[in-house]
Amino acid sequence: MQAKNDWKSIAAALFPEGHSITEQDCFLSGYGKFDGQQIGVIGTTEHTPIGVEIALAQAQAILRIVREHPAMPILMLIDTQGQRLRHRDEMLGINSYMAHLGKCVDLARRQGHRIIGLVYDQALSGGFITSGLMADACYALPDATIRVMGLPAMARITKVPEERLLELAQSNPVFAPGPENYQRMGGLGAIWEGNLAAHLRAALAQPLAGDIRSGLGLERGGRRYAQTVINAVQHGSAVQIN
User: Fold this and answer.
1) Which of 2, 44, 62, 114 is disulfide-compatible with 104, CB 3.0–4.6 A?
2) Residue 134, in any domain of the structure
3) H or E stretch covering 109
4) Would residue 163 count as lying in a domain?
5) pLDDT at 3 exceeding the cut of 60
6) How many whole angstroms separate alpha carbon 85 and alpha carbon 160?
7) Is residue 136 part of a domain?
8) What is the residue range of 136's domain?
9) pLDDT of residue 2
């Protein structure tokens, strides 16, 4: 599959002062110069699936930044078709590798690293869960493709006819792919159009407020009950859903 957006042009737009990002076997790593400081960068390209090798490489890169560059911001460039579906990866315990990656991201956050995700092309399934959805905030380009599961696969799993799911997708963002729907649900902070360096600067300047995705989903009308349930659990009260 041909990627819609070339990572090199995206990196050049994000870091007009220059960068040292390199690609090896669809894995991106390096540093970008930004407003007089450096930003650590890890990511993937060419819609590559996340197998044990890339999951481990990303985890190693994050731990290297934590060890060698305290409190350095980390940008995750996301372009993946999701978890690699191979018998070999399953037998090696791909779930444990991806869990390890998620723990490394959380460790970096706890050590004071601001973590930002940017879906610049495609984000599917488990490959998105352990990258953009683990970041402090995730953003996307307008023509990015984002979904957890395609409607044909969803129809097979849920036994709901695909035609019905297509109908539901017209009014419910949970069933519909695309950055606009994930923004409505709160999974994306914003969609970046125009000057990417300016968007990155604004994202880095945002105060940390914990996980606010459910609140954003309620505010934007994409997830009406998640924050309600969270509030009820926190206060030990009954959940009222109309």
Assistant:
1) 62
2) yes
3) helix 94-110
4) no
5) no
6) 24
7) yes
8) 7-141+192-207
9) 45
According to the model, what pLDDT value does residue 1 have?
45
Tell me the three state secondary structure of residue 29.
strand
Paired residues of 119 in beta bridges:
78, 140
**How far is the C-alpha of 4 from the C-alpha of 195, rounded, in Å?**
18
Query: Per the domain annotation, does 35 fall within a domain?
Result: yes
Residue-wise DSSP of 162-205: HHHHHHHHTT-TTT--SHHHHHHTTS-SEE--S-HHHHHHHHHH
Q: Residue written as tokens 């030990």?
A: 236
At 44, which CATH number?
3.90.226.10
Per-residue pLDDT of 69-118, as tens digits, reads 999 999 999 998 878 878 888 888 888 999 999 999 999 999 999 999 99
* Cβ–Cβ under 8 Å, residues 38 and 110: no
Q: Which residues, in sequence order, are CB contacts of 17 under 8 Å at separation 6+?
A: 32, 33, 34, 35
Where residue 74 falls (left for φ over 0; alpha for ψ -120 to 50; beta otherwise) is: beta
The number of folded domains in the chain is: 1
Q: Mark residue 40 as left, alpha or beta (left: phi above 0; alpha: psi -120 to 50; beta: remaining).
A: beta
